[in-house]
Amino acid sequence: MRTFPFYILLLFGWIMYGQQTVYYTLTHTPNSNNIEVAINFEPMNAEKVRLIIPRSAPGTYSLTNYRAFVEQVVGTSTNGTMAKGTIGDGSFFTFEAESEQLAQVSYQLDLEKMETQLLDGDASSKSRTNYVGLLGYSVFGFVEGLEENPIELTFKTEPSWPIFSTLAPTLDRPKGSASFQAENFGVLADGQYTLGKDSQIYQVPNAPIPLFVAIYSETEVNLEEIGRRGLLALNGLKDFYGYVPMPHYTIYEEFINPKSDRHDYGFSMEHLNSMTYTGDLSRAVTSYDPKANIGSIVHHMGHSWIPLRSYGRGYRPFAWQVAPLIETIWLNEGFTWYISYAYVLERSGILNFYKRNMEEAPKFIKEKSLKELSLLGSSQYAADFRIGKNLFSRGALLAHDLDMVIQKETNGQKSIKDALLGLLNWTKTNQRAFEYDEIEPIMSKATGVDLSTIWEQWQGGKLD
Ligand SMILES: [Zn+2]
Fold this sequence. Notes:
Layout: H1 6-18, E1 22-28, E2 34-45, E3 50-52, E4 70-77, E5 82-87, E6 92-95, E7 101-110, H2 111-117, E8 126-128, E9 131-135, H3 136-139, E10 142-143, E11 151-156, E12 163-165, E13 177-182, H4 185-190, E14 192-195, E15 200-204, E16 211-217, H5 223-241, E17 249-256, E18 267-271, E19 274-280, H6 295-302, H7 329-344, H8 351-360, H9 363-366, H10 370-380, H11 385-409, H12 416-430, H13 436-447, H14 452-457
Parallel strand pairs: 1-11, 16-17, 17-19
Antiparallel strand pairs: 1-2, 2-7, 3-6, 3-10, 4-5, 4-7, 5-6, 8-9, 9-14, 11-13, 12-14, 15-16, 18-19
Helix pairs in contact: 5-6, 5-7, 6-7, 7-11, 8-11, 10-11, 12-13
This protein binds zinc ion.
């Protein structure tokens, strides 16, 4: 029986063709620090194939030369001939194979070399005797033009090694090989992956969404306590926003012996459904502490709302080959700082910390407008952390001023929360980054308060 008209089948076929799945295979060689990544796709003219290697990622606000660790780049044609990859003018490889159709590109990575050369401990993947920990954007590249296509990722490693991914966290880890789906390259790059017996996984009971703790530690560590703190943070954010947008969440932390005196540790990074942290051994959480400072977990988990699900131009879609210009870092960071401390942690005294950061900033930072400082911070947020501190402090104090006027004008009926929900709902409806000039009108409309005066007051430099 014909249930569908033929043209619908054709249309369906076209949609499927337009969305060809790209197949990634990551092979880890047991007892080594090496991995190989192979990307298979529908045949393309060799001269059109460009393998792009990320040089930055949303939220890092920095340039990292991951291409430096990519070796033995090879394109393979439909009839099995090989074409060597050639480094381009930027963070990409091209392939010389006249009139050949390429269906695969592959490359190798030395994780030991990456960890040794990248002095930011949280920027690199790691390889140990019984552990491999991978940050998606540090190991995966993509073929230009296929970055929006769905991806099937397969891991292959030592048969007894369990495999975990923040894309689909579970206690029931497959061993030796595993496959995961990602809706596009952005999601693949945003995920983390652990292989090996020394990766410990814990699921936090009674959480509003499946909440996991993934740990690699070279000293004693207490996963339940990390989970307890994570759940406190998650419940606090849920109480503030009124909902949790993440389908699941993983707190992924490493506590390691420093690679060298020059390596830096102690930083976290936010991702759609996870946060990462790499600290030295002294930072390992070992016991219950009711007074533990959970500010960093609240902040990084809070990014799962803003900016990961509501953001300005440049943040997403992301230009992976560069550190793109982003005008709204003060919003991403400052608004999250403000609600984390003023609401979730109820520490209003932190306003003085923001004010002090602004007072202590050098003139070249003070005189920049909000937008100019954000553009500067797009690649140098932490490289000169006075830039980063000034950005989040200005953003937090702007959020505070907005909050005060919203509460005053609505007799306490509305607050900064309604402005942020306005941004989140706007992104959900419009499915794109907001423009700079759209931010204030979205917040004014969502709160019913004209916020243009406060907004304008904060746009210029802050010299006094
Ligand atoms: Zn942040």
